[in-house]
Specification:
The chain is an alpha+beta fold. The protein has helices spanning 46-54, 74-80, 84-87, 100-111, 160-176, 198-203, 224-237, 289-316, 321-333, 392-399, 412-421, 459-484; strands spanning 20-23, 30-33, 59-64, 69-72, 120-127, 133-144, 150-159, 183-187, 193-196, 220-222, 244-252, 255-269, 278-287, 339-345, 361-366, 376-377, 403-406, 430-438, 441-450.
Length: 485
Amino acid sequence: MIARSEPTCRTCGRSLQGVQVSASRRSGTTDELGPDEPERESSDGSDLLAALLDGMDAALCAFDADGVVTHWNREAERILGWGADEAVGRRGLAGWAVRSADAEEVEGRLLSVMHAPGRQVHEFALLTKDGGRVLVRTQSAAVRGPDGKPAGVYCAFSEVHAQIDLERSIALSEALFEDASWGVVLVDVDLRPAVVNAHAARALGTGRTSVLGRPLGELLSHGVEELESALQHVLAEGAPPAPAEVWVSVRAKEGEQRRCWRSGFLRLASPLAEEPVPLGVGWLFQDVTEAKQTEQEASLLRFRTQQLHRASRAAAECEDPAEAATVHLDFALAGFADHGLIDRVAGGALTDAEAEGPVRLVRVAATPSGAPGPSRLAGQAGLPVRYAEGHPARQCVERVGAVRASAGAARPEAAREWALARQWPPDAVHALCAVLRSRGRTLGVVTFVRGAGRSAFERSDAMYAEDVAVRIASALDLAGLSDEG
């Protein structure tokens, strides 16, 4: 017998003689308990091991070196129907989990891993308790004892179709982030990119890693508010029923680039939580800028063609040719400009040779500079407009072609001074002058004016203005012939 000293309390030094000693029902280990303490059960970790095994998403069974089943979890019971009390302790799988004719091959393949490095993957059919068959994919590996020698085998298995679904999901995810021909971005709950594929990185004008964690406002100069609003809606309400087209301006090395992205959104939730916990948003987009621009240009062309047709029909009903000229001007303004001015060459039409000298222009018609309304005829007194040298209207006559002018990004006060100095409405920011030509002569100039809320005139706008100018010039030429008659 081994002698030992009497235990004492560390706090008060009191003797602990008479301490009860209890044995665990499972492990046989002893715990020292105080005289007034309730008895505690000890555990050797088997409860934890059982909980871990039963909580696994994959079915798991284990065999000792002799092929006897030692472990069988709930997922294995769910797939095959055999409970742990029916499976544990059986030698091999023959006759119950595997057909007897296949048992030797199946058990041989499973147990052979004890003498092979790493894991092995196999597919074979198992029997269910009700007599059915299920095709499973297994991963097996050797279990080593304390001496390093094989002590058994563990085998994790799942139904093949479930495994294939998982592999497809993983393969799809990898393909989306590597080879997809559209942009894929995972945005976290703070609306910052967490994962970006190569296509999206190129569209954002940056690298795949440099974009991670940055606010969208650092990547986009316009359209970021609309995009963030869509992402917040998806986080709160879920995915929208249809794709959305978002116009953005991307900050690139070459400068800002305006793009249209057709975007789809998916709310991402954790599959491990009892209740859906949002992990972020999956944002898929495709650049449709060229298609949208082509569509817009076609729509605009159709509208302008219809306006020209309507104007021609309305002008044909005017008895006064000068009034017909204002009708063409009014129809042209719709969706095109805010104001319109018609100036006629003082003293009559000019030939190309006469247009090379100083030109004086008289205001014939203009739209109201205040409230919107139809154009009004003016200039009965015949006094020339005070256009300075180099004025866009005078340049238009001299060049016999359209001239564009703009105040640019000037401050409102400077833009107002710019407009008034050119005898245009005070809210003018952009202007387009088109020459009025008829019968090989220059009759005057029509000027279209846009305010600060519109973009500057482009080349396509100049072509439309020239079409309108031809009709106005024909009407003014007819009015001059009527006056001469």
